[in-house]
Specification:
Residues 689-758 form the AP-5 complex subunit beta-1 beta-barrel domain. This protein is of the alpha+beta class. The protein is built from 38 helices and 14 strands. Strand 7 (735-744) and strand 8 form a beta hairpin. Mean pLDDT is 82; it is low at 215-220, 236-251 and 633-648.
Length: 877
């Protein structure tokens, strides 16, 4: 295949980016990587296009080179292309270096046996040192960009193979003192130093003179593959969190460098720290992370080396640098930070979190720092959440949560307030003006008051329950907080039962400290205030969660009263779900009479059968077996009672199960007659179905609710009469009908399935006017035509005819609605659109390729729909 054009490559790259996996599985996927490498050497493509191709290899290396062999070949080809570039300035050198590095790293082809690795590594180190710039690598103007790119590539390879550059530490130190890009070299040296220290510590070996500056190693032997192989896992270049890692994970405490090695190590760290001010804030933070975790716990290396940097960084406004400072504090504690430093840092975080103009992400960051502040001498066990000791009441006044806060900020402030309440019990007993628990109670009451507003935003209710869960999580052992919280939540449910799903979710997440009293309070609220209609559904949902063996008589009394109002299937199933919960709780007295009554009085046969099943289980099974039979899983241990084994299959029969749709439903020919539009539905089934019920639903308010269509029996291969579905549009507009089928299978199972949606086209709503008086059809049409204005709208458009002509088009689509006809060139059409609109058409002076159409309607919203319909008539034939 010849070279591809720029447009062809743009199409291929667009298709690949849309779905890389689908493109690679297609016919063009196998050749994409090879074509990309070949086109990089083509002189017909511009450098900009080639840079786009290289960007693709950087973004999707795993898809283009899926195995080590392909990655090796790709890296070799990319290096060959780099060598063949002319000496003039080129935008391809840096992308080619990055692409070759990415191919080796992503394809796991980097190793001592890889030819591409043996070519790339000396090239990168030579470029980073400035020695290979000159012939074949462009002019001197590209020196610094190429040096920076080479350092980035080496850093990526060192991350993939930790310890790879262990033998080059001395060279990298010498390069840092020369003219060159400071930031890439600093980050490269810091990463290589950190990895070497960790690996040598694990191997119980010293630094062995690795930090001593020297000449660049000879070709073929500069890379410490031994160290890379000893690094059995990829080391994290940054600490994942503030708490200090375990000593055995870091492995640095066992490394005891000699005095000379310790002196060289201090000199290397000091050299990096002295140049850190030249780095960007993000790079400075990463450098501090690497050095801090490299020296953490290293014997003979005091963290005082970081002290000059702290003088500069304690007042920084950069969040990344502040985060790095806090990480150093977590790593070294009082060995690096004095009590005055700790107080200053804590006060600065507190004041910054109160700044009124602070963006929300920065606000949350400062609050997170306060919640996880690494203290020099923390009290209590490790890992326990506590507020900083120096965070006194005066500092906390500005950090109190408010109902005006953003939800995420409010929860963060509330978390801090809960930690203060947990530590402030003794101070409250002594008596003080400001009481954190009192403020906490008022805040929770305000949240519950907003959540109780009927019709209020769902976010307010969600925030209230999130806050309640947070309080329980932090103050689970303090009944003075949980008791009013329980009563407040019970009052919230009394005011707004529709929040029942939130209460169920809260009960699933909290422990017994709040769960048990809240269950009791909610049960008392429900049984003392039986509701009807919507409230009854929520009451039953709560009861199914909180019903137990306590006070069963009140619960059974509520269920007896509620049974008379459970008229639909959903309420009846909810009622029986409460009975199931009582069964599992071991309630027997009174429940048997209720189940017998339900088996007789429920209208739905499914509900009656389920009540009868529960009664049989209650009468024949003891408590342990009954609990197993009603457990959440059918994979229960085999029991000696045969009734339980039969019950598993019986319960499956009683359940309405979801199944794949065994039928196809389509819209048949249009029937324009009667007072309302009717869809004719055609059904084809793949297996025998019985008692079929088709339910239809329309999104929005365009149509009135549609009735269900019932079919006693459907058999495959046997034609079924068309099913009629009356439509009641509230506006004359097309729609989509969601279809759900409920049916019984020959095996006796009741199933439901979702069918593909059915379209209701604009033409499906057409209805004819009553027959015009004989002899006065033209006058009848003119009267309708004049009645549309001035309230209505009028328009004109061109209706293409195609090869069939006007007469055939009218006969096929508009014949039931023609009032006046003068074939083959003129027709007057009157269409009635429910509920109370009309559409009138004048098709006159037809020409060979189309006919001008004049439209009038008393509903302006019909005009665009009518225009689209008429323009599509020729294509519909």
């Amino acid at each position: 295949m010849g070279p591809l054009s720029r447009e062809t490559w743009a199409q291929r790259l667009g298709a690949f980016r849309a779905s890389p996996s689908a493109f690679m599985a297609g016919p063009e996927g196998e050749d994409l990587g090879r074509d990309l490498l070949n086109e990089l050497r083509s002189e017909k493509l511009s450098e900009q296009t080639k840079v786009s191709l290289l960007a693709l290899s950087l973004e999707y290396p795993a898809q283009l080179w899926p195995d080590a062999a392909a990655a090796e070949a790709a890296a070799t080809s990319l290096l060959d292309t780099l060598v063949l570039l002319p000496p003039r300035p080129s935008a391809l050198r840096r992308p080619l270096l990055l692409a070759a590095t990415t191919a080796l790293a992503a394809g796991d082809a980097l190793g001592p046996t890889s030819g591409a690795s043996r070519r790339l590594l000396p090239l990168l180190l030579g470029l980073a040192s400035g020695r290979d710039l000159g012939r074949g690598f462009g002019p001197a103007s590209e020196q610094r960009p190429l040096q920076a790119t080479a350092c980035e590539c080496l850093r990526e390879l060192e991350s993939c193979k930790p310890g790879l550059l262990g033998g080059c530490l001395g060279l990298l130190r010498s390069l840092l003192g020369q003219e060159g890009p400071v930031q890439p070299l600093s980050l490269l040296l810091a990463l290589a130093l950190r990895n070497t220290l960790v690996i040598q510590a694990r191997a119980r070996a010293g630094l062995q003179g690795l930090l001593v500056a020297g000449d660049m190693p000879a070709a073929g032997g500069p890379w410490n593959w031994t160290l890379a192989e000893e690094a059995d896992a990829h080391l994290q270049p940054q600490a994942p969190s503030w708490p200090a890692a375990e000593e055995e994970e870091c492995g640095l405490a066992v490394l005891e460098p000699s005095p000379e090695e310790a002196r060289e190590l201090r000199a290397a760290v000091a050299q990096l720290l002295d140049t850190s001010y030249l780095l960007t804030p993000v790079a400075q933070a990463q450098l501090l992370w690497l050095l801090g975790w490299a020296l953490r716990g290293l014997r003979g290396q005091p963290p005082v080396l970081f002290k000059p940097q702290l003088v500069r960084l304690l007042g920084t406004a950069q969040l990344t640098l502040l985060h790095a400072v806090l990480a150093l504090k977590a790593a070294f504690g009082e060995a690096l930070f004095t009590a005055q430093d700790e107080a200053l840092l804590l006060r600065r975080l507190t004041l910054a979190a109160q700044h009124p103009a602070l963006p929300l992400p920065a606000h949350l960051f400062y609050l997170h720092c306060l919640l996880n502040f690494p203290e020099n001498c923390p009290l209590g066990p490790t890992g326990e959440e506590t507020a900083p000791l120096l965070l006194g009441p005066r500092l906390c006044r500005g950090l109190l949560p408010s109902l005006l806060h953003d939800p995420s900020a409010l929860l963060a402030h509330l978390h801090l307030l809960c930690l203060l309440c947990a530590e402030d019990e003794e101070k409250e007993e002594k008596g003080q003006d400001w009481c954190p628990r009192h403020y906490l109670g008022e805040l929770l009451a305000g949240l519950r008051q907003r959540a109780a507003l009927h019709g209020g935003p769902r976010a307010l209710a969600t925030l209230c329950f999130q806050a309640s869960y947070l309080v329980v999580h932090c103050l689970a052992t303090q009944p003075t907080v949980l008791t009013p919280l329980t009563h407040g939540l019970a009052r919230l449910y009394r005011a707004r039962p529709a929040l029942a799903p939130h209460f169920v979710d809260l009960l699933d997440r909290v422990g017994p400290e709040l769960g048990e009293p809240l269950r009791t309070a909610l049960r008392q609220e429900v049984v003392s205030r039986p509701g009807r209609d919507e409230a009854l559904r929520w009451h039953l949902q709560i009861l199914s969660k909180v019903a137990d063996g306590k006070a069963p008589s009140a619960t059974l009394g509520f269920l007896r009263a509620a049974a008379a109002h459970c008229t639909d299937w959903g309420l009846q199933q909810a009622l029986l779900q409460v009975c199931r919960a009582l069964l599992r709780a071991g309630v027997g007295e009174g429940l048997a009479d209720l189940l017998q009554a339900l088996a007789r009085q429920l209208e739905d046969p499914d509900g009656r059968d389920r009540a009868r099943l529960y009664y049989i289980l209650l009468a024949h099974l003891a408590g342990p077996k009954l609990g197993v039979a009603l457990g959440p899983s059918l994979a229960a241990p085999a029991l000696t009672s045969s009734l339980v084994a039969e019950n598993q299959g019986f319960a499956a029969v009683l359940m309405v199960q979801e199944a794949p749709a065994p039928m196809r439903l389509s819209v048949g020919p249009r029937r324009a007659a009667g007072p309302v539009p009717v869809l004719q539905l055609q059904v084809e089934v793949l297996e025998p179905l019985y008692s079929v019920e088709l339910r239809f639903r329309v999104e929005g308010q365009l149509y009135a609710p549609l009735g269900a269509v019932h079919v006693p029996c459907l058999l495959p291969g046997r034609p079924c009469r068309p099913l009629h579905l009356p439509l009641q549009p509230r506006r004359p507009a097309p729609a989509q009908l969601a279809v759900r089928a409920l049916f019984a299978t020959p095996a006796g199972l009741t199933c439901h399935a979702h069918l593909p949606p059915l379209p209701v086209n604009f033409a499906d709503l057409f209805l004819p006017f009553p027959r015009a008086p004989d002899g006065d059809k033209q006058g009848f049409f003119e009267e309708l035509w004049d009645s549309c204005l001035p309230e209505g709208a009028e328009s004109r458009l061109w209706c293409p005819l195609g090869p069939q002509g006007l007469e055939a088009l009218v006969a096929r689509h508009l014949d039931p609605f023609v009032v006046v006809a003068q074939p083959p060139t003129s027709y007057h059409v009157a269409i009635r659109l429910p509920p109370a609109s009309r559409l009138l058409l004048r098709l006159e002076a037809a020409q060979g390729d189309g006919v001008p159409v004049a439209l009038r309607t008393d509903d302006w919203a019909v005009l665009p729909l009518a225009g689209d319909y008429l323009r599509g008539l020729s294509a519909a034939v």
